[in-house]
Amino acid sequence: MRDCTTGNLCLVDTAPGLExxxxxxxxxxxxxxxxxxxxxxxLRIDDLSPLKPFFADPSIKKVFHGADYDIRSLHRDFxxxxxxLYDCELACRFLGEKATGLDTAVAKRFGVTLDKRYQKKDWxxxxxxxxxxxxxxxDVRYLVRLSAMLEKELEEKGRDSWVKEECDAxxxxxxxxxxxAPMFMNFKGAGRLGRRSLAALEELLQARNDLARSMDRPxxx
Length: 221
Known about the structure:
This protein is of the alpha/beta class and 221 residues long. It has 2 domains: 2-170, 2-Layer Sandwich (Nucleotidyltransferase, domain 5); 183-215, no CATH class. The chain has helices at residues 2-5, 51-56, 67-78, 88-94, 102-110, 130-141, 143-157, 160-170, 195-215; strands spanning 9-16, 26-33, 36-40, 61-64, 85-87. A hairpin with a 2-residue loop joins strand 2 and strand 3 (36-40). Helix 4 (88-94) runs parallel beside helix 7 (143-157). It is globular. It starts with a helix and ends in a 6-residue tail after the last helix.
């Protein structure tokens, strides 16, 4: 992480697995700093605690695009908190833009069409093909110039302080704790069953869920 901590600006993104996984989890972390891009594989690295001081350092700005999922997931999976966050997607919203995706923002300001073919791919597969690794690195490279342009546009409109306030609040979002509600509550038609049938249904659903968990697959698969 030495290369990341020597600058004052860092670009961050995360890639999740797809619905085939019963446990939602971060499958790749992309970090760009000082013109270098690092791909961190949390599926191969057991201990990511060395990343914590970097993310918590208020002297280093971490630039995301659509940070809500990333912030929640980094804390849920690794106990990572993020200080000095800047969300380009949030900035686009405060500029009044209707379409706020990274591809739209980049196309509008740089005339470049981002390759999004791997956006919905399963990032839990290993080894990741070279084109997916290249896509992961390319996905964050425009954030440096984009964030600078957005900040300038916001300053001209007098809205930069609004975005900072919202980004500070966004850095504290967390995943909601799971409730202990019976699984049959989400099962279609359960309301027509009696108490004994509901108990039997709950046992079946729990068994199916346990099997899916052991296979790291969603129950409906």
